[in-house]
Design brief:
Shape: globular
Number of strands: 10
Structural class: alpha+beta
Strand order of the largest sheet: 3-7-8-10-9
Radius of gyration: 23 Å
């Protein structure tokens, strides 16, 4: 009989050290972001969203409204980062997904504290992190060569970057689900929150399909855009170079301008490798 080799003590120690370092860095990142939020106008936006959530429950007094989505739109500005520790800006540009996750946790912590502080007035005592949805926008990233994404190189960056291109195609406004809330109608008194899905989950107690609180469904509009790099129009034929269009997903809170075919747009965003498809996730879109 073959016995599997057990991990050596040195290997276990090494893994523990790596985990501790990662957790320590996550804590540092969250502290930096929380400090940034508290010193900026963004704190007022977060408090307003939390206040709206508690007021809505006070008015209806329906138990299911305690599970409603709390949507917080946060417009970050590049210039505001210049007065903060450089580590914060580096995190935002180098690891946009980590930055976004850390922002969500910090926003959740602030909303949770607000709910606890007002619990004697509202009757609400807690909130789940799954109810908090941060809609982030990043404004004013300078157009720099090392932050530009060139599709012709077939290199898909993981950092925050910019795409300058001409709009050649776009979809009609499409809807994506932000959150749905479900209950068990068999008497189990179970509830469940789901993100980005309308598929009925199964009850953990009786294994039957749950029913949705349809009035609590939160949705958002978005467009899919196809941008062709401006270099394709200026110099369409270059030896050993193939121009590729970029598929961009832009949500309604990420732009204020009109989307017109033939228009020239600058998009700031990133590639999300956690999702299927080669879509560039926009954090900001402006007309040039």
């Amino acid at each position: 009989m073959l016995s599997s080799a057990s991990p050596s003590p040195s290997s276990n120690t090494s893994n523990i050290q790596i985990n501790n370092t990662t957790l320590s860095q996550l804590f540092i990142n969250q502290r930096l972001i929380e400090s940034f939020l508290r010193k900026s106008i963004l704190l007022k936006i977060i408090e307003a969203a939390a206040s709206q959530y508690t007021k809505n429950y006070q008015q209806t007094k329906r138990p299911e409204d305690t599970l409603a989505a709390v949507i917080v739109q946060l417009p970050f500005a590049y210039k505001d980062f210049l007065d903060s520790p450089k580590e914060l800006l580096n995190l935002t540009i180098d690891e946009p997904i980590q930055f976004m996750n850390a922002v969500k946790y910090c926003v959740y912590s602030l909303i949770r504290d607000f709910v606890k502080q007002t619990s004697s007035e509202t009757g609400l005592k807690s909130i789940d992190i799954e109810q908090v949805h941060v809609q982030l926008r990043f404004i004013g990233l300078p157009y720099q060569q090392h932050l530009c994404f060139d599709p012709s190189k077939n290199l898909y960056p993981t950092n925050l970057c910019s795409v300058l291109g001409i709009l050649t195609a776009l979809t009609e406004p499409e809807k994506c689900v932000i959150q749905t809330v479900w209950f068990c109608s068999t008497g189990c008194l179970r509830n469940k929150i789901k993100k980005n899905s309308t598929e009925a989950p199964q009850c953990n107690s009786c294994s039957r399909s749950m029913s949705e609180y349809s009035k609590l469904r939160s949705i958002q509009n978005y467009h899919l855009l196809r941008l062709v790099p401006t270099g394709f129009v200026q110099t369409p034929i270059i030896l050993d170079k193939v121009f590729r269009a970029v598929l961009v997903r832009v949500k309604e809170h990420n732009y204020n301008c009109k989307l017109k075919l033939g228009g020239r747009y600058l998009v700031t965003g990133y590639y999300d490798y956690n999702k299927c498809g080669q879509e560039f996730q926009a954090w900001n879109l402006i007309n040039i």
